[in-house]
Specification:
single chain; 80 residues; mainly alpha; 3 helices; rod-shaped
Length: 80
């Protein structure tokens, strides 16, 4: 019946969109991870700098890089 073929096309389109979304999330995570490693090595070494608290470990550097990628890197607590 034509109703079910349209429904099948809609489901196939949604599944195609989900795979694209998942691949874009994987790519974004990889970019954030590589940048966090780079920032950790550059900015997280010296304790006397003002940004040591943001980059002293890889997970913290990833969180800071993720927040700053969306423009929310104003304070440590995430407040504007």
């Amino acid at each position: 019946s034509p109703v079910f073929t349209d429904l099948l096309y809609m489901i196939q389109g949604m599944l195609g969109g989900v795979t694209t979304l998942l691949w874009s999330m994987v790519l974004f995570f990889m970019i954030v991870y590589v940048l966090a490693l780079l920032f950790r090595e550059i900015l997280g070494r010296s304790e006397d700098s003002g940004v040591f608290a943001y980059f002293n470990s890889v997970p913290r550097a990833m969180f800071t890089t993720f927040r700053c990628s969306f423009g929310d890197c104003t304070t440590e607590a995430g407040l504007p």
